[in-house]
TrEMBL record:
Domain of life of the native organism: Bacteria
InterPro entries assigned: DUF1858, ScdA-like_N_sf
Coiled coil: none
Entry protein name: DUF1858 domain-containing protein
Ranges for domain DUF1858: 4-61
Amino acid sequence: MTKISLQTPVRELVQAHPEVVPVMVKMGLSGVTDPALLNTVGRFMTLEKGARMKHIALADLLAALTAAGFEVENND
């Protein structure tokens, strides 16, 4: 299982684990498919902040990430 953190900037997360992109898109965080957006906003936006902005329940995001084979750490 791949360990990720909800506090990691999205740009960093996508660079390290590109397989997370389809999960994010499915959850409504489709900005990760736009290179310009990823290279600007993605530098400080985290999964946690993005979910909050898009009104995605954290429990739903965690369930989707877990189902995709990710282990979410530092989920305080």
